[in-house]
Amino acid sequence: MTRATYSIALALAAILAFADPNLLAEQRNAARKNVLLISIDDLNDWVGCMGGHPQAKTPNIDALAKRGTLFTNAHCQSPVCNPSRASFLTGRYPHTTGIYFLSPGYNQAPALKGVPTLPERFASAGYHVMGVGKIFHNRGNQLFGRVGEYGGGMGGFGPRPKNKISQPHGHPLWDWGAFPERDEQMPDHKVADWAIGRLKQQHDKPFFLAVGFWRPHVPMYAPKPWFDLHPRDRIQLPKTLHKDVADLPQYARDLTTLKHVAPTHKWVSESGQWPHAVQSYLASTSFVDHQVGRVLKALRSSPYRDNTIVMLLADHGFHLGEKQRWAKRSLWEDGTRVPLIVVDPSHKGGQVTRKPAELIDVFPTLLDLANLKADPSQEGQSLVPLMKNPNDATWQYPALTSFGPGNHSIRSERFRYIHYNDGSEEMYDHANDPHEWHNLLAKSNPLSDELRKALKWHRMQLPKQEHALLEGGSTGHNAFRAAEANRRDR
Ligand SMILES: [Ca+2]
Ligand SMILES: [Ca+2]
Asked: Which CATH number fits domain 30-254+261-392: 3.30.1490.20, 3.90.1140.10, 3.40.720.10, 3.20.20.120?
């Protein structure tokens, strides 16, 4: 091909790319709103407005919730970073893609070939796309550079002291305590700085800005003033039930403990570190809330304050001793419940809904709020009906969370039902058991008619087909295999 014919071919390709009437209409729409997406790593419901811990101090997230709709019954699709993010950034469930654990990345799944991610979709609609920090897992974030700008990870999980502070053994990331000295040394401070810089710029096109914070993910380090906000001698431990795990199927206990990298609850409690670890999580959360506040303040003082959709979420929950365990990787409320707040200039603020919501709903919701064409192949629902009518909307969609093939939890407005790959089950009634202490299916008494009906309905919500587990080496893979091996031995 000569240079001239090559140029003509390029020009033709460009014309064809823009000839899609939907894309053209989207790009021409002058009244388009900007999007600010804030993602927080490993933040459970220990947020003031979520009520997960009485001592949580998150004034900025609480104020954001007052300006929009707070989904108090929102859940991740997987209780681990990579699959959760792969799911909400593509609009596909883990059982559709086979990405159940920390590997492989979203771009290696055959089922996701040709599926646009959230930032790519906004780029094709003519948005200026920007990202900073942790949005995708690991190298997936380089995608922002290909469709727009990526500000970098800013140092990831951050600086670490020469010697661990609290947990001398175990995984290198598993530690907690006051460190380093100043906020400015923290990657999340730099993530916020980058986002603030972009909010101060003049943008000729509408923007999609994704800001991904790294805390409270381990190591639970934050500068000392954030610890002083939560004095250790007054720390309340999470409410737990002695021998809570006694009524769990053996498979559930195996899947949530075998081959895990978090410290055991036995070690944390016997070493006297439990209050310190809780303090460190609360301190890390207050620190990240402060960074969220800095970004939101910059938005408020910018020309974009009245035409920007703000969405705040976390990728999954976190145990701090509940069910006698630590970290994520469980199908219980502590593992799946996440903060989810949506603020849109054309919707009322100060709304709260208990209807189940899923992170997989984020993509269709943003398309809906931004007036972009819906993608029927996406598996989530737009949450806009709940923003219009938070309590009375007809809403029959429960939240599905998966941890390996055959291991699924169904969370409805009132119940949680869990099905494991060996056929064992759990059910909890949140109307009188908010901590999921009493597995209704472990009792010898027959279920009431009402509960039997509920059980039947929840069983019917399980995935009908499942993509096979994509191979990879990760804690999740190891735990899943260990649970499967024990099951075969029984
Ligand atoms: Ca995470
Ligand atoms: Ca129990």
From this structure: 3.40.720.10
List residues, by chain if needed, whose CB lies under 5 Å from ion ligand 1.
41-42, 81, 315
Distances in Å between the Cα of 133 and the Cα atoms of 137, 148, 342, 407 are 10, 15, 20, 31
Task: Tell me which residues are annotated as active site.
Answer: 81, 137
Name the pTM for this structure.
Answer: 0.95
Strand ranges (DSSP E) for 232-347? 308-314, 319-320, 326-327, 337-338, 340-343
Strand blocks (E) in 102-232? 128-133, 149-150, 176-178, 207-216, 220-222
> How many angstroms separate the Cα of 313 from the Cα of each of 47, 72, 224, 342?
12, 11, 26, 9
Q: How far is the CA of 304 from the centre of ligand 2 (A)?
A: 48
Question: Checking phi first, is residue 113 left (phi over 0); if not, alpha (psi -120 to 50) or beta?
Answer: beta
Ligand nearest to the CA of 442: 2
Angle CA 293–297–301, to nearest 5: 175
Which H or E run contains 384? helix 384-388
- Domain boundaries defined on the chain: 30-254+261-392
The upper half-sphere exposure of residue 401, i.e. CA atoms within 13 Å in the direction of its Cβ, equals: 33
Instruction: Decide if 44 contacts 60 (C-beta within 8 A).
Output: no
Inform me whether the pLDDT recorded for 17 exceeds 60. no
Nearest to 64 by CA among 302, 373, 294, 219: 294
Q: How far is the CA of 255 from the centre of ligand 1 (A)?
A: 18
| Chain segment 37-95, per-residue pLDDT in tens | 999 999 999 999 999 999 999 999 999 999 999 999 999 999 999 999 999 999 999 99
